[in-house]
Amino acid sequence: MSCVGVRQAQYLLEATDHPVDRIAGQVGFGSPTAFRDRFKRIVGTNPHTYRAAFRRLSTD
Known about the structure:
Strand content: under 5%
Oligomer: single chain
Helix content: over 70%
Order of helices and strands: HHHH
Number of strands: 0
Radius of gyration: 11 Å
Largest sheet: none
Structural class: mainly alpha
């Protein structure tokens, strides 16, 4: 999966309350583990931490 899928996942993490496992499937990853690994490699943090940080930033 390319950076495009991870960018789509970032949007979904920011805009929805969907579980990470569901988002992984929505953006084309075959397994949530592969998604988490690729997300962390590209973004530098895991999806859960990304969502929490984004929500903190958007409420400040």
